[in-house]
UniProtKB/TrEMBL annotation, chains A, B:
Compositionally biased region (Basic and acidic residues): 403-413
Keywords: Oxidoreductase
Taxonomic lineage: Eukaryota, Metazoa, Chordata, Craniata, Vertebrata
Start-end of Acidic residues biased regions: 391-402
Chain's gene name: vat1l
Source organism superkingdom: Eukaryota
Record's protein name: Synaptic vesicle membrane protein VAT-1 homolog-like
Pfam family, one: ADH_zinc_N_2
Positions of the Enoyl reductase (ER) domain: 45-372
Native source species: Notothenia coriiceps (black rockcod)
Protein family (similarity comment): Belongs to the zinc-containing alcohol dehydrogenase family. Quinone oxidoreductase subfamily.
Molecular functions per Gene Ontology: oxidoreductase activity; zinc ion binding
Stretches for region Disordered: 375-413
């Protein structure tokens, strides 16, 4: 695994910055087979650090599969990467993106099981937001016939993460209760669906009021993220809950631990509270890190509680657990075939619309997954728009928040 | 549960100090049915805080079973209680002891399933080290015919704790690896036996050299507690281990977390490093508490690790999980009937020998469980002894450590 990781880094270095020219946005896919369109992150910061440009086409190394990308998943983690708010941020510039779906275009040596033309979904250690990616065959899975490319790009990360947290880390069983933050997001919706495959599981969901109508049926109890959810949960379940899934961190960690019943498990799987409207540097991340409330093991002992962290990408790309993830994916594809689970796609966006898509995640406007549809043309700007979105190369910070007037209408799936 | 707990406290207040007279050691069981012998802890501190005295006989309340005690389990936790090194130490004086076996002598109302004469083992929220105890029927279990009273007193706490940590908290499965500190102790031996019921589980045991010959066959790899076990384990298993069971706390917490492989679980189930030869007060415990290295949840997230605390007594007496514990006991009794597990008894001691027994646990001389045998007469002191063991009422601190010359020979089972 370590060797493969090193190769990927060289690959990345090779792929990017071969066309550092000015204003490459809205470049059309050319007939030149050696080039491809890709989203590039030029520096850590606001939306203006992203641009679409032409890059050299990657070719598969030994053990890799080359995929003509149809759709890519956009995750909250991508915003954290953009802001540099992650531990060990990558060396820039880089093509972001950790998951995609598409068609196998060629294969390297030692990629038994894959053939040109296969419809696949894949994890990628960066580089997913491009017309073509190469990734080790260990991270590639064949798509069911009934699954669309958009669904496949919405499936891998969210469902594998949700499944592993519920069943590998926390051992969800009949009659248990689960509290999930961001119940309307991609992982939240996957959690709700997977909980429904186990008898008599109570799901407490927390989400912005604006999403309540859309997701009310997916959970047992739904709370506004702005109310005192602890009190509400304790009213319904004075003993607390068995599993808390937290992607926010910060003050929610202490609340989550308090809400656990004995033998309950709190799982931190993200830290989206660390992303704000401001540009974040690695140093501000480090500061947030230290501000997180630390847990005394003796307190866990007194209270019979379990606290866990879960990062699927680290599991795949740092910890070498691709075989375990493969076995989980097999189980998930069974559940999909049985129509017990189905990825929820919020909206589709062209590569050139990645800024608007990120803004929508930042504003927590999505229900389910945002997808970058590589073959989609950008939707024309709304008539009310008076300016273009900020261009690459612009140096001013672009405030994230109330810039509705600049937004394109998303293509709602 | 709360009500029952309150009743127990009153009961305790009532039971003790009815005979505060001087020098009650070596009191014989009298014919008077209203009195009984019991070990009493008069103050937090050294061995001299313990004495055997006569107490008023308890009678069962509604829902309680009255047991004529045959054998009691002695645990490291009892040393912590004696020193006051636990959170919320009890109001003194108190009769220590959390588990016993014996014969049902009478039953209160609402104790369906138990009859006079039943051979039983039971958890007790203090008060176990006496000739008679009353405890709620929820904490009483019928003994298998093939089990001796000493085995039963060695069974409940160690095997239930080991089972719940391995299978409820950590989800032990085929092919996993487990590291257990104090592999020669009661819980350690139970862990080793339960691991052998799952195919292909590797057990790394850590124990004093003096125990190695006795326990070598019970574990896969055995290390001296004084060597750098981290390095040794990493040599054999560079990826680390799946489950770490730690009853020591302190620096072992950080080491245990480091040794975990991704998705692995560290479980703290005791803090015996907090007991030293010195008398401990609540304040020194509080100090130790704050000195324990705290865990940043984000670090768990980066590393995909799980940290858990497990206290069976809190689960039973504070957290109301007696039904869950009952179901675990049923599974364990099945394994006992199938001869897959068998409690390891280190030695039997008279109530009057409780100080020597505690010294043996303190010195980590035991392999398996120490039992107080209520019907046993004290073994005569060794010829080399020039003084009696310290008497009740003595105020000097008795140094724990090298007082071999005072020890009686234990009755080795």
């Amino acid at each position: 695994m370590a060797k493969e990781g090193a190769d990927m880094t060289e690959e990345t270095q090779f792929m990017i910055d071969t066309n550092p020219g000015k204003e490459p946005e809205h470049v059309e896919s050319s007939g030149d087979a050696k080039e491809m369109r890709a989203v590039v992150l030029a520096g850590f910061g606001g939306l203006n650090k992203l641009r679409v440009t032409k890059k050299a086409m990657p070719e598969p190394h030994d053990g890799e599969v080359k995929i003509r990308v149809k759709a890519c998943g956009l995750n909250f983690l991508d915003l954290m990467v953009r802001q540099g708010s992650i531990d060990n941020p990558p060396k820039l510039p880089i093509v972001p993106g950790f998951e995609c779906s598409g068609i196998v275009e060629s294969v390297g040596e030692n990629t038994a099981g894959f053939e040109i033309g296969d419809r696949v979904m894949a994890f990628v250690n960066y580089n997913a937001w491009a017309e073509v990616v190469c990734t080790p065959a260990d991270f590639v899975y064949k798509m069911p016939e009934e699954m669309s490319f958009a669904e496949a790009a919405a499936f891998s990360l969210n469902f594998v993460a949700a499944y592993m947290m519920l069943f590998e880390v926390a051992n969800l069983r009949e009659g248990m209760s689960v509290l999930v933050h961001s119940a309307g997001g991609g992982v939240g919706q996957a959690v709700a669906q997977l909980c429904s495959t186990v008898p008599n599981v109570t799901v407490f969901g927390i989400a912005s009021c604006s999403k309540h109508a859309a997701i009310r049926d997916s959970v047992t109890h739904l709370f506004d993220r702005n109310v005192d959810y602890m009190q509400e949960v304790q009213k319904i379940s004075p003993e607390g809950v068995d599993i808390v899934l937290d992607c926010l961190c910060g003050e929610n960690t202490a609340k989550g631990l308090t809400l656990l019943r004995p033998l309950g498990t709190y799982i931190l799987y993200g830290a989206s509270n660390m992303v704000t409207g401001e540009t974040k540097s690695f140093f501000s991340f480090a500061k947030s890190w230290w501000q997180v409330e630390k847990v005394n093991p003796i307190k866990l002992y007194e209270e019979n509680k379990v606290i866990a962290g879960f990062s699927l990408l680290n599991l795949l790309f740092k910890h070498g657990k691709c075989n375990l993830v493969k076995s989980v994916m097999d189980k998930l594809l069974c559940l999909f075939d049985q129509k017990k689970i189905k990825p929820v796609v919020d909206s589709l966006w062209a590569l050139e619309e990645v800024k608007e898509a990120m803004q929508r995640i930042h504003d927590r406007g999505n229900v389910g997954k945002l997808i970058l549809d590589v073959e989609k043309s950008p939707t024309p700007l709304m008539a009310s728009d008076s300016t273009e979105t900020s261009e690459a190369g612009e140096e001013e910070e672009e405030p994230e928040g109330d810039n509705d007037s600049k937004e394109r209408m998303p293509f709602i799936h």
